[in-house]
């Protein structure tokens, strides 16, 4: 097993023809006090795509995401969302953070957490309530709207955060290691929930994770990052058929090949082979 | 169950023991300054279990209440602003520490010059003494907003005011209440002192009248009453604090 040939190459992903880019990042650079963190990141995410961004822990994924979201100024390069250069958080962007308990407001009920961003949109109260209820329903929390977030389990809290992002109806949804703090069983459920929501709503998702299996299982494409200073190591297409299945998809030979490729791309070849 | 009963019984028993000790130790006292407890209780009954209670206590409590409300409102407004705008914080921190370090009663003489000797002065002095603990607690509270929460609010389109209303202020509430809890005893001290200086009613006035005319049983009865009011107010503030913690505090899963 240790002597197997290098994993088969995976075709570098070409830009899907005729599709509109939602997110365009070009030469993004960011450092803290002369210490470079992001070293010229360029990537595109197209309308309706599910792109997994995978990189080793501590490689600056969160810094990158905060730059993309307009939360953190960067030194050079451009970030465009929907064609407009990002200077502050764009109105067409939603985020699900890893730390659900801190991203939710403990002093508001679940329903009010989901409704809060809608208060400041140009929609009627009735419309806002309908959007919030629909989003809660779609993540399976229709009956828990009156509860406070801390009365729910971790997985359910993250569902609330997902519902909040859905109700906001973003063009692009960024997810920052959203399932890194939940147990394995819950993680599997949440992955499948995201796939269902994504296919139902024709959303565009950029999903940051350090979990290679998760990246492959969810994504249309995988963007593999390098260690700090972070750049893009490789971009590959995940040519696994949809709908995907936690057991059947992960049991395919192709899944194993892809996993080996991503492992290699991330510089984990030794571990992957051994 | 037994434990809970014990938790209630113990303070009652120790209080009873303390009172009994005071009673027996002072029973045969002929000292002008330390009259027997029985005399003090008799004075207490005459002074405070009568209509005089409202005539004397209400003005004092009114001043404390209004002064605290004013000081708290100002402290919250200025403190959360300073805490929310980090850039200005380092500039004003030394001045805040300086102001806090001043003994609150120190402001009474200059305040008399500016505001006269009436209620405005007394309420003003109480407000000025309550301001600093609340203000500094509010700065702390507004500063302790989780960075992720601020990111979330900005991404989801909450403007400055909305972030203040929904994120900064609720985060600061338990801290602010801690400030209120610290300010309350100070406000009582300042109330008594300001009434002692110049007043025609209130507990401080009563204390100054009785002590200067050697009605010491009456004076002691006012001190006992102040203690009782202090305990009651502090417990009320602490209880409200626990409620606010439940409403605005952080909870982790489980």
From TrEMBL, chain A:
Q: Signal peptide: which range, if any? A: none
Q: Keywords on this record?
A: ATP-binding, Nucleotide-binding, Transport
Q: Write one Gene Ontology MF term.
A: ATP hydrolysis activity
CDD domains in the cross-refs: ABC_NrtD_SsuB_transporters
- The keyword ATP-binding belongs to this UniProt entry's keyword annotation: yes
Q: Which InterPro entries match?
A: AAA+_ATPase (IPR003593), ABC_transporter-like_ATP-bd (IPR003439), ABC_transporter-like_CS (IPR017871), ABC_transporter_ATP-bind (IPR050166), P-loop_NTPase (IPR027417)
SUPFAM superfamilies, sorted: P-loop containing nucleoside triphosphate hydrolases
UniProt key word ATP-binding: yes
Q: What sequence ranges are listed for the domain ABC transporter?
A: 23-252
Q: Which PANTHER family match?
A: ALIPHATIC SULFONATES IMPORT ATP-BINDING PROTEIN SSUB, TAURINE IMPORT ATP-BINDING PROTEIN-RELATED
What is the protein name stated in its UniProt record? ABC transporter ATP-binding protein
TrEMBL record, chain B:
First-listed, main subcellular location of the protein, grouped into a coarse class: membrane
User: Can you say what this protein is called?
Assistant: ABC transporter permease
Q: Which InterPro entries does UniProt cross-reference here? A: MetI-like (IPR000515), MetI-like_sf (IPR035906)
Query: Which CDD domains does the UniProt entry name for this protein?
Result: TM_PBP2
Q: Does the keyword Transmembrane helix apply?
A: yes
User: Out of the domains of life, which is the source?
Assistant: Bacteria
Q: Which SUPFAM superfamilies match?
A: MetI-like (SSF161098)
Which cellular compartments is it found in? Cell membrane
Gene Ontology CC: one annotated term:
plasma membrane
Residue intervals of the ABC transmembrane type-1 domain: 57-241
């Amino acid at each position: 097993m240790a002597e197997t040939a290098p994993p088969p190459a995976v075709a570098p992903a070409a830009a899907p023809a005729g599709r509109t880019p939602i997110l365009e990042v070009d030469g993004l650079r960011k450092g803290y006090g002369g210490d470079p963190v992001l070293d010229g990141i360029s990537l595109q995410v197209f309308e309706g795509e599910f792109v997994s961004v995978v990189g080793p822990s501590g490689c600056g994924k969160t810094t990158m995401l905060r730059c993309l979201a307009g939360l953190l100024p960067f030194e050079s390069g451009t970030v465009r969302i929907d064609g407009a250069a990002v200077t502050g958080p764009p109105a067409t962007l939603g985020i699900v953070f890893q730390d659900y308990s801190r991203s939710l407001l403990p002093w508001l009920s679940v329903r009010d957490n989901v409704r809060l961003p809608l208060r400041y949109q140009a929609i009627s109260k009735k419309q806002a309530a309908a959007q919030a209820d629909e989003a809660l329903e779609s993540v399976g929390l229709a009956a828990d709207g009156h509860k406070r977030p801390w009365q729910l389990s971790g997985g359910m809290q993250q569902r609330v955060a997902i519902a909040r992002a859905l109700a906001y109806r973003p063009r692009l949804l960024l997810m920052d290691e959203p399932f890194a703090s939940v147990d394995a069983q819950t993680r599997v459920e949440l992955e499948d929930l995201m796939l269902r929501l994504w296919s139902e709503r024709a959303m565009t998702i950029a999903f940051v994770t350090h979990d290679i299996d998760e990246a492959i299982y969810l994504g249309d494409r995988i963007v593999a990052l390098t260690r700090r200073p972070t750049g893009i190591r490789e971009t590959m297409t995940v040519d696994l058929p949809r709908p995907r299945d936690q057991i059947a998809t992960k049991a395919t030979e192709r899944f194993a090949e892809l996993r080996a490729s991503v492992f290699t791309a991330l510089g984990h070849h030794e571990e992957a082979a051994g | 169950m037994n434990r809970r009963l014990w938790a209630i019984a113990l303070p009652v028993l120790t209080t009873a023991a303390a009172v009994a000790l005071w009673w027996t130790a002072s029973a045969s006292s002929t000292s002008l300054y330390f009259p027997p407890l029985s005399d003090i209780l008799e004075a207490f009954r005459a002074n405070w279990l009568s209509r005089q209670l409202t005539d004397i206590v209400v003005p004092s409590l009114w001043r404390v209440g209004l002064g605290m409300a004013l000081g708290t409102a100002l402290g919250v407004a200025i403190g959360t602003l300073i805490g929310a705008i980090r850039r200005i914080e380092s500039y004003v921190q030394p001045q805040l520490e300086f102001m806090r370090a001043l003994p609150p009663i120190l402001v009474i003489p200059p305040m008399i010059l500016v505001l006269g000797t009436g209620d405005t002065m007394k309420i003003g002095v109480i407000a000025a003494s309550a301001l600093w603990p609340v203000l500094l607690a509010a700065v702390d509270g507004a500063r302790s907003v989780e960075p992720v929460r601020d990111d979330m609010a900005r991404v989801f389109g909450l403007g400055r005011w909305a972030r203040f209303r929904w994120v900064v202020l609720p985060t600061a509430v338990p801290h602010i209440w801690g400030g209120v809890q610290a300010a309350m005893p100070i406000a009582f001290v300042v109330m008594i002192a300001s009434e002692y200086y110049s007043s025609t009613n209130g507990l401080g006035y009563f204390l100054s009248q009785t002590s200067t005319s050697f009605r010491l049983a009456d004076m002691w009865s006012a001190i006992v009453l102040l203690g009782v009011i202090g305990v009651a107010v502090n417990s009320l503030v602490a209880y409200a604090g626990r409620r606010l913690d439940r409403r605005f505090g952080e909870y982790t899963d489980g």
